[in-house]
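Same chain as my last thread, 165 residues:
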Amino acid sequence: MRIFLLGFMGSGKSYWGHRWSLQYDIPYYDLDLEIENETQLSITEIFESKGEDYFRRAEADALRKMGLITNGVIACGGGTPCFHENMNWINAHGESIFLDAAPAFLLENIKKEKGRRPLIDVENENELLFFIEKKLKERMPFYTKAKHRLQAKEITVTSLDNIIN
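reply #2:
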């Protein structure tokens, strides 16, 4: 079974992907790490040197390669569902789970990892919150196409029980 974790940056896709991988004894994949391995560049380097369009094409290619695995939890990038018909592909090839989180929750998590987030280039916390709210609104039509929706604040290590059993 392929499980695709979707949601805005800071919603817990990587965090829970790792934990669920251990809990349910299934492999874990991080789409961003797959892209970095393929391109031999960090996500930040890709954005800086090649641009977002290049990144989104590489992301779509890496996502399609996940179709080759038969079992795994795949943490997708925050924007993955929004480009290149990725959301339709995800739903056709596995169980999609939207980790839904409020902007304030996302802000707190993003602030902890600001240096590692290529789209976060804002110093002012209010500007960052505005950015999150704006991007979340743009992406919500894609996220809500997921087959399942979990509230990020309520997720536990056994939250997948009803989805995979």
